């Protein structure tokens, strides 16, 4: 059985950051890629990144931030093509949501291209609702759903 581990990125782990940036460039088109902002994003005090190893290999990652005490955001989620459909995306999303919840936010938000069916389905499965469609969010011909999940304050 494969050995699956979720790890938290430590800011000084340059090798892992480079691996994640490489994967980000491969998976996302330039206008949707955080690759060139990764290092800046990771320097922020209110953001975090979890990554998933399968038998020691990088298989996916999720990035999140909590811009205010009111809400948190899932800023990126990706699983390497050969590792998809095995529950890793869901595991990463779940772990990021738990991290955000420790910040005592009552809402988690995210943006996703409605054409990214696997991602939209995953977010819906995990309780996210579509708030609105933002036209031209990623580029002139690519829209985004803004999605959210609320938690009660108890
Ligand atoms: C979205 C993504 C992270 C899902 O990762 P994954 O590891 O394949 O997902 P999981 O195996 O955990 O699947 C969890 C749920 O996602 C949905 N899902 C996953 N793959 C799907 C597919 N090919 N078609 C439809 N729904 C799918 C399903 O609801 C699934 O639950 P189920 O197995 O009970 O049906 C992955 O497809 C990916 O990296 N896509 C490219 C990047 C991307 O779109 N990121 C999101 C925008 S930032």
TrEMBL record:
<dbReference type="InterPro" id="IPR016181">
    <property type="entry name" value="Acyl_CoA_acyltransferase"/>
</dbReference>
<feature type="domain" description="N-acetyltransferase">
    <location>
        <begin position="4"/>
        <end position="152"/>
    </location>
</feature>
<dbReference type="InterPro" id="IPR000182">
    <property type="entry name" value="GNAT_dom"/>
</dbReference>
<dbReference type="GO" id="GO:0016747">
    <property type="term" value="F:acyltransferase activity, transferring groups other than amino-acyl groups"/>
</dbReference>
<protein>
    <recommendedName>
        <fullName>N-acetyltransferase domain-containing protein</fullName>
    </recommendedName>
</protein>
<dbReference type="Pfam" id="PF00583">
    <property type="entry name" value="Acetyltransf_1"/>
</dbReference>
């Amino acid at each position: 059985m494969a050995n699956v581990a979720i790890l938290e990125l430590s800011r000084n782990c340059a090798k892992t950051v480079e691996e994640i940036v490489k994967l980000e460039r491969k998976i996302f088109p330039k206008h949707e890629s955080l690759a060139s902002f990764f290092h800046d994003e990771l320097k922020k005090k209110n953001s975090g990144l979890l990554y998933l190893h399968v038998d020691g290999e990088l298989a996916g990652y999720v990035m999140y931030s909590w811009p205010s005490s009111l809400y948190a955001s899932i800023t990126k989620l990706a699983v390497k093509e050969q590792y998809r459909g095995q529950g890793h995306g869901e595991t990463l999303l779940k772990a990021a949501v738990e991290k955000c919840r420790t910040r005592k936010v009552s809402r988690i938000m995210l943006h996703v291209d409605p054409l990214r069916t696997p991602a939209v389905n995953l977010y819906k499965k995990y309780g996210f609702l579509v708030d609105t469609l933002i036209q031209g969010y990623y580029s002139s011909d690519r829209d985004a759903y803004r999605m959210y999940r609320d938690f009660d304050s108890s």
